[in-house]
Fold each of these.
Amino acid sequence: MTRYTRTITAAAVALLAAACAGDTNEQEAATGGAQADAGVVNVYSHRHYDTDDQLFQRFTERTGIKVNVVTAGADELIARLESEGASTQADVLITVDAGRLHRAKERGLLQPIASETLEQNIPEHLRDRDNMWFGLTRRARIIAYAKDRVQPSQLSTYEALAQPEWKGRVTVRSSDNVYNQSLLASIIAHNGADAAREWAQGIANNLSRQPSGGDTDQIKAIAAGTGDVAIVNSYYLARLQASDDAENRRIGEMIAPFFPNQGDRGTHVNVSGAGVTAHAKNRDNAVRLIEFLSSPEAQELFAQGNQEYPVNPAVQPSPTLAAWGEFRADTLNLSTLGELNAEAVRIFDAAGWR
Ligand code: FE2
């Protein structure tokens, strides 16, 4: 969705909020609520799914709080928050990957939030240790494999893909991408820096091609015969498999998911998440929005919009993900991924995985 259409949507949400305000106020007056004049909440979001708009709309219906959304690239939003400083209009930052959320925290762009609701709805390892950000959807970094060339019995761990038998067969995007940096950060945390260096070097040696494109491009590459396995986020494969487009579905059918490291620490997972900005003018509304997004009602829609796993354990994943079966996920606290990001970047550079 372009930024232009997004602005229109935000305006539509605002109109709808105005239309619903009467009902909401009546309800709250009836229950003695003190939120009758609920106001607005301004969101900077890197996510761009139609379901997110539906969610904000539902939040407005429930609370009377208008949601204004600015969407842009994740790094752009962080840069913008930084340059706006105390004068920013943004109350909430929504972005992907703990590595990036941590970056926002490090730069002083977020503030801590004490919320029992968030503590109940979101498992501890999927939120920041200092309550600066909270995971809202969860994704696994899986091994996608070409069904006609790879048997699942040949697969086991991320580490195994660095072995010589996989030479010329591993397809993965550039190491300048935060998803790979967070995966490597998890390997540093579990196996130590030396083992992480060896792994990055091993994968760099086994690449089927010079990294290019995003995760979907890696899946399409192995479907076309360039490489046999791809390291990708789960939703990229699930989206192809659940696509309305026949060609996408055909590709999705050729490729199957494998959850690595089931015999030890579990598959690396990450989140998209949200935090309240350091200079939020509508702090209470910001907290209410994030609490709403973690609720079972919102989690169903929020996760399914992008074929992600809900963070709230009370909510089931989409039928496509459910068909993949359950898996053991790494429970490493995701704050660690951010803390080890710089070291991961250094290791990648030295390994020549560009
Ligand atoms: Fe992504």
Note: The pocket of fe (ii) ion is lined by residues 96, 233 (CB under 6 Å).
Amino acid sequence: MSPRGLILGIETSCDETAAAVVERGARTLSSVVASQISTHARYGGVVPELASREHLRAMVPVVRAALAEAGISLGDLDAIAVTSGPGLAGALLVGITYAKALAFAQGLPLIAVNHLEGHIHAVLLNEREQSPEEKLEQTSLALVVSGGHTHLYLARPIDGDWHYRLVGRTVDDAAGEAYDKVAKLLGLGYPGGPWIDALAQYGDPQAVPFSFAQIKRKVHLAGRAARTKAASTAPIAQLDPRFLFSFSGIKTAVLRYVDLHGLRGTSRPNSATWESERLPRTREEAVALCPQPTLDLIAGFQRAVVGDLMKKTFAAAESYGARRLLISGGVAANRELRARFTAEAGRRGLSAAFPTLPLSTDNAAMIAAAAWPRLQAGKFAPGSLTADPSLALGV
Ligand code: KG4
Ligand code: ZN
């Protein structure tokens, strides 16, 4: 291995084609993300076939841009890291096939990275960049909260590598999915999280209080996990019900509230005529389109979701004696979430760390950073590596 420890990361698990060069898991030399949002926006969600096609188109230019931005050539690399799951099968395969071919042609080791581990390493990468001298590896509680996941892990550094134990998760929708569905219902754009984030400040969260019922053990024993988008081998029945999330109920509650208060149609086109041309383009346009009761509803929804994420995350941190929280994934970009988690962590004498905003949503720098301990340990992917759409993290 060259003394530089340069890893090219490749990420294509969903709707972003990303490549990045990271030095020794601690310094981002480049991070390029080609978003497909405009392709999927008119459908109000990611269309898997279109995602694969767009990845195929973007893969080579994105890798070239990442190398150019880093000021290096392929010959300077020490390894190639790629997301092997979880995610969309066809989308994952584009990145994996390309990474394999590149690694073979360059005679470089290939490292497979779990997308969820990548999100956790986005926080660790930022921490190492900000405090290169400090020893930051300590047992932490990680909340990965995105469009596909709402998972809690106990993350422990052992012999230079990280080990993960799943301690909580959603039994149905992910928090980001709830954001996206509620935004779609209200006639806002895709993805919905950033819209709700921007509009919540104009509403009164007390005006529409939503509550999360405690998930009963019998509910999750009944096997509801089979319906989840991110269903995997994770043993929900063995998890402490205090650390289980459920976001499908609040989506229905919002729908009922919209119907009951006649909000439908005031700020949204009818869902049957969902068209991107009729969506607001700016925050000002959205605020002007949304009547006050809709803004109150948005504020109440966000207040409840963030409150539920906090309640269970802090309970798990206390239960496992974790002093540090690592909060990542697209929803971790949310301003109310960051402010409230930070304040509560301060009150409890814990630390709460988030990635920078560009590293909160999908990117490849987090994949290259997660691969660094594995490059040092010589843990490489076999030539038979393939996509695993429901790859689980940890035990
Ligand atoms: O991590 P990510 O880019 O992709 C997945 O792995 O899913 O997360 C995307 C999700 C979407 O559901 C999006 O609506 C949500 O993250 N999101 C947000 C914000 N920015 C993105 N949710 C709430 N507030 C935000 N500011
Ligand atoms: Zn993600």
Note: The chain has two domains: 6-137+358-377, 169-357.
